[in-house]
Amino acid sequence: FGIEKITDLLFYVKKPSEAAYKVEAPTAIPAITESSVSGSVDIKALLALGTIEHGEKVFKKCTACHVVAKGGKNKIGPALYGVLGRKSASISDYKYSKALIAHSKIWSFAEMNSYLIKPQAHISGTKMAFAGLKSEKDRASVILYMNSFSDNPLTNP
Predict the structure, then answer these.
(1) Which of 12, 25, 27, 86 is deepest in the core (most CB within 10 A)?
(2) pTM score, two decimals?
């Protein structure tokens, strides 16, 4: 302990008054919060970003667990034919998580958008382990693609 004090006296180094290197901090990107997702998203503008064709490509990530075709069978996840406009957890022959059953909302464009950002954050306790779609274009496209697979598709806002 004493050696440190003695060396400080023998080899005194004056510290500079200002930093030699100035590092510019990157501008912070605001995080998506649940409150910013829940009601303040302009769905019309969001859906304008997407296309059904792009949604078909992005939906390939979902095909490991979901089927979107009419008459499709449930896989790891439920069949998604006609999902938009339908109440959550409403397919009788699929075993949903308790969290999704308790959620009991209608799958609107806004609700689906919020869910697809990060399913576990939107409905805590859901069985869906998918991390989510961060890209607005990808989410909009998948929503438009899923909406096209319905007997009564929702009208675009």
Answers:
(1) 86
(2) 0.73
